[in-house]
Amino acid sequence: PHAARRLNRQRLRHPVLAVAALALMASGAHAGERRDLPLSAGWQFHQGDVGGAEAPAFNDTGWATVGLPHTWNHLGGTAQRGPDYNATRGAGWYRLRFTPPADYTHAKVWLQFDGASINTEVWLNGRKLGVHQGAFGRFRFDATPALKLGKVNVLAVRTDNSSPSKAGSPTTDVIPMSGDFFLFGGLYRQVSLIATDPVHIDMLDWGGPGLYAHTDSVDGHTAIIAVTARVKNDAAQARQVVVKTAIVDAQGVPVATDSHPLSLAAGALEEPEQSLSVPNPHLWDGRTDPYLYQVVTRVETADGQMLDQVTQPLGIRSFRFDPDQGFFLNGRHVSLHGVSRHQDRPGKGWAITPADQAQDMDIMLDLGINTLRLAHYQHDQAIYDLADKDGVVVWAEIPLVNRTAPETPEGDKGVTSAAFADNADSQLHELIKQNYNHPSVVTWSIGNEVNLMASFGRGVSKARPLLTRLNQAAYDLDHTRPTTMADCCEPWPDQPKPGLDVVAEITDLLGYNRYQGWYYDKPEDLGPVLDRLHKLHPRLPLSVSEYGAGGALTQHTDQAQAGVVYAKGHFHPEELESRLHEIWWAQLKARPYLWGTFIWNMFDFASDSRTEGDMVDTNDKGLVSYDRTVKKDVFFFYKADWSDQPVLHLNGRRYVDRAYPVTDVQAYSNAATARLTLNGRDLGTAPCPEHICRWPAVRLDVGDNVLVASADIGGKAIGDSLTWRFGGRADEIRIRAGASAGLTTAAGARYGSDAFVTGGTPHDRNPGPEFGKPDTTPPAVTGTPDPVLFETYREGAFRYHVPVPAGRYQVTLHFVEPALAAGARVFDVAANGGVVVKRLDVAAEAGGPLKALDRTVSVEVKGGDGLELDFRPVTGQAIVCAIDVVAAR
Ligand code: GCB
After folding, report:
1. Could you read off the pLDDT of 322-373 as tens digits, one per residue?
2. What is the distance in A from the centroid of ligand 1 to the CA of 180?
3. Range list of H helices, 368-505
4. Domain identity same for 584 and 719
């Protein structure tokens, strides 16, 4: 018997054989298998509106021929803006001629759209099948009455992604109203024609599979699986059927079966519930062991003829969330760390392929995530399938973003229209029904930053009634998963914000989107802020649903790792993104009460409201570039912590042309120590605490600098290398005080960004256009050919330790008084202890504010300790805009 069973297993190893496994249960032959005809190729497309295109005879010969997935929008990832995106939001028409097989006789035929954006109207042979509102859910129409078998049919589809604020737009009540992401238009997922028997598992259940399974209970010996099939009889006569369900293991072997006779009146829908007991269940255990069963339900005639069959994934697992201890999977604590992801790519927009989905998942797994927030809407089934298969725990959500009321004057007062609320509810139904069976999904999110507008002082948030309705709907649809949402703006008890709802404690769990040190506060504030929120809501399991910083591949700053970190407008140096994450992650990791943390964002993504970093229409907070080709340095910081692969990555590989002859060198690694050489010279072995290896104050050669790092991880040698260039001189250092970016003057002098400094505070009179803030132009400084050099300054009591070799130097200090009158600011400057500038009053000497003033002194630097410039206030605060230290020649 043993051998026989083995043979049986081998024969059944192929998943397709799961079908055969079920056939073993059946007493006779079967006929009615579903037929699925993809409608991907040969569509005619017209961008814009056109009258009468739904009519079969309409002449579309001038239209473009396209295949699915398709969108007409192409946005983001470019340095220059293309055609105004608003012009490309509107209608797009698609027409397809196709011939369904003549042998679909007695069948029901359904048109399935896996997702179309945003408002979709569908006609078949001139007959309107329906409208779907919402860009993300799958939807189906009954095509049977309009379909002509064996003949040419004409399918016409009008999609419309007009902004909801446009007069007459069909999207005025369709969520989302707004958000920091672009809503691409069109048939951006697949369309297919599915034929079933008149007696079938329901096709019109919010786009869902019609078959729903969950684990009722599980212990070491047995799992009880509850399976509900919605069985529909669209035939004109009553039918006697048998609903047969099997749970099939990963080898294709049925491990539990159940048979349920059912009487179906004509037109009836029945929902028999079956309870199956799986002995010795093999658990779905996250990334450790994402074991999957399948639920196969088949409807048969009383004499064993198959009428319909549906297969769904099943992962047997239990999980819970604890407000103090975080997340538990199958009774074991798992600290969930991961990312959020958007579904777009350059050139393709949302019209991405299964290969793109798989590549995204591969990159995320390589990073080492064990959780994924699929923001801010329902993604394609492919990615939930991959999460099941790879054991990634998923936060799934609906696109209720920023606003819980329509974009109308009424909506600005927080008044939600019935249509708006119903649409949010429909999209929640679609999300839950369509993703119910994915073991990866552990929570349904009903909203994101719903009181952001009110926190900006724009409109009023009265989110509670709608959120309460959605929360209840989620429970009614699925009692097995808790609800959650992502909050931006909860005010402190001591800082009330009038007109702003506190939405915490509506849902079972909560996520906070936190940008301490990016949009507000300081990066070190993140942990204390979370502790306050945890104290405020002691029974509420909390996560950080977003944290992140922009990182541009072509923008760089010096010495961010030494503590000079601040962002300026659209200037998003990659080094700053890395540094902020180092500070944030140390704090998040130290807070075990958080059930999960989600970096915003895995990939750069399109957002028409943004210009930042080096790109327009792009949010550059990705760990990976929009086109997926570049992993930013910070990717390797997390990979070193999260993945079990050996990591050694030298940072700054895109900052090739260096401003300073002396710089810290840093690598991310999960080795204990790493060794560094520069042009073959040994720079020593550095420890790598918290996965950061650092070689401070490395002196570069003039010309090329080949840096090679090496380490040993578990007996395996690992290495990384990069080449920097230093085109300046070893005995010349020019520092732009207070600035995050370097600068080259009109005369060609190269300044690095602020560095080598302790104390004081950086200031920028021209912070540049910032997200959500008006652009500013500072008043110009006179008396200099380089006014930009005088836009930034450092102020306070501070010291620069300039690493120049011994010798005589000309030290030029550049000053401007930004605002104060003569007498208000007086200070000394000492060089290596001796006062070289005494009682300087910039306003008095320059003749008033905003007038440039230079002071040059000659200083002898002895020994190897470099030059220390000490700015000592006498009255008010000291100040400096730039410092040149140039060897006297
Ligand atoms: C948020 C939003 C997200 C934005 C992100 C950002 O809080 O939820 O949609 O993209 O901030 O980058 O500002």
Report:
1. 999 999 999 999 999 999 999 999 999 999 999 999 999 999 999 999 999 9
2. 6
3. 381-390, 409-412, 418-435, 452-455, 464-477
4. no
**Residue 406, domain member (yes or no):** yes
Q: Whose CA is nearest to atom 10 of ligand 1?
A: 180
* Cα gap 243→261, rounded to integer Å: 6
218/131 same-domain check = no
Please say whether the dihedral angle defined by the alpha carbons of residues 182, 186, 188 and 189, taken in this order, is positive or negative.
positive
Distance 412 CA to ligand 1 centre (A): 21
Which atom belonging to ligand 1 lies closest to the Cα atom of 546? 7
> Which one-letter DSSP state was computed for residue 280?
S
Would you call 545 helix, strand, or coil by DSSP? strand
- Closest protein CA for atom 6 of ligand 1: 180
Is residue 386 a part of any domain in this protein?
yes
Residues with CB under 6 A from ligand 1: 179-180, 376, 448-449, 488, 513, 546, 600, 619, 621
Angstrom distance (rounded) from CA 141 to CA 659: 62
Judgement on whether residues 495 and 614 belong to the same structural domain of the protein: yes
Judged on CB neighbours under 10 Å (0-12, 13-18, 19+), 586 is: middle
Q: How far is the CA of 601 from the centre of ligand 1 (A)?
A: 9
Average pLDDT of the chain, as a whole number: 92
Segment 258-310, tens digit of pLDDT: 999 999 999 999 999 999 999 999 999 999 999 999 999 999 999 999 999 99
Query: Is 826 part of a structural domain of the chain?
Result: yes
Atom 3 (ligand 1): residue with closest C-alpha?
A: 180
pLDDT digits (tens, 9 = 90+) for 794-826: 999 999 999 999 999 999 999 999 999 999 999
Pair 135, 260 in one domain: no
Same domain, yes or no, for 360 and 506?
A: yes
Contact criterion met (CB below 8 Å) for 380 and 115: yes
- At 712, which CATH number? 2.60.40.10
Residues 400 and 427 both lie in one domain: yes
Supply angle C-alpha 172, 176, 178, rounded to 5. 90
Q: Strands across the sheet with 326-329, in order?
A: 319-322, 326-329, 332-333
Ligand 1 centroid–CA 348 distance in Å is 22
Domain count, the chain: 5
CA atoms within 13 A on the CB side of 784: 21
Residue of 488, 489, 513, 543 to mutate, ligand 1, most atoms within 8 A of C-beta = 513
Active site residues: 449
- Whether the CB-CB separation of 61 and 105 falls below 8 Å is answered with no
- What is residue 352's DSSP assignment? -
**Domain stops at, among 191, 223, 243:** 191
Q: Considering the domain boundaries, does residue 658 fall inside one?
A: no
Owning domain of residue 742: 732-887
CA of 341 to the centre of ligand 1 (A): 12
802 and 861 both lie in a single domain: yes
**Is 719:674 a contact under the CB 8 Å cutoff?**
no
Domain stops at, among 314, 345, 367:
314
